[in-house]
Amino acid sequence: MLLSSRKNRTRRCDDRGFTLIEILVVVAVIGVLAAIAIISLARARQSGNEASAIGSVRAITSGQAAYASSCGSGGYAQSNADLAKGPAGGAPFISPDLEKADVAATAKSGYTIDVSDNADPDNKDVRPAAETCNGSVGNSRAMYYVGADPVSRGATGTRSFGSDRRGTIYYDLANVPNPIPDGLDFVQ
């Protein structure tokens, strides 16, 4: 009787556990779900970075409009640094995070945001740098170009964005050319 009672206890303990196969199946299912979640998270992060880049290009476009009307005699700044300088006693035309966003090491949300001279052959100087109200390094010019490119294409973003004095934000899977040609898709 004592022997049969031990066998029953042993069987009951064995019946309560999981087999190795069952545990491996559960671990595999969890691994697949985790992989799907990581891919979705990466896509969401890229979308957020792209939205931030579009917002940054819009902020620079607004800053350029303010610079042209108050500092550049209708001309535009040619660098992030010149837009980050405010007139005497006034606020800068762009935020401090955009001032240094033209370098990969200090990029904003995975994108470099770079204000530069527009390569259009009709571009010309409007006012010498020394005569601008904020002591710009570069002359104010009739046109400007701003480009936003992912620091690591495919990882921090997939599209590049660009704008100019027209204020429309264009995008492309490669870099948006300077000057921006007709026919590119634009953000609405």
Number of helices: 4
Helix-strand string? HHHHEEEEEEE
What is the share of helical residues? 25-40%
Mean model confidence by pLDDT: 92
Task: Write out the strand line-up for the largest beta sheet, numbering strands in chain order.
Answer: 1-4-5-6-7
User: Structurally, how many domains make up the residues?
Assistant: 1
Number of strands: 7
Please tell me how large the radius of gyration is: 29 Å
Secondary structural class: alpha+beta
The percentage of residues in β strands lies in 15-25%
Distance between the termini: 84 Å
Shape: elongated
Q: How would you sum up the major sheet?
A: 5 strands, antiparallel
Which residue ranges are poorly predicted, with pLDDT under 50 across at least 5 consecutive positions?
none
Structure description:
It is elongated and about 90 Å long. It has a five-stranded antiparallel β-sheet, with helices on one face. Helix content is 39%, strand content 15%. The protein has one domain (23-186). With 188 residues, it is α+β, with helices and mostly antiparallel strands. The chain starts with a helix and ends with a strand. It has helices at residues 2-16, 20-70, 80-83, 96-99; strands spanning 111-117, 125-127, 140-141, 144-150, 160-164, 170-172, 185-186. It contains four helices and seven strands.
Short descriptors:
188 residues, five-stranded antiparallel sheet, two-stranded antiparallel sheet, alpha+beta, elongated, single chain
Topology:
Elements: H1 2-16, H2 20-70, H3 80-83, H4 96-99, E1 111-117, E2 125-127, E3 140-141, E4 144-150, E5 160-164, E6 170-172, E7 185-186
Antiparallel strand pairs: 1-4, 2-3, 4-5, 5-6, 6-7
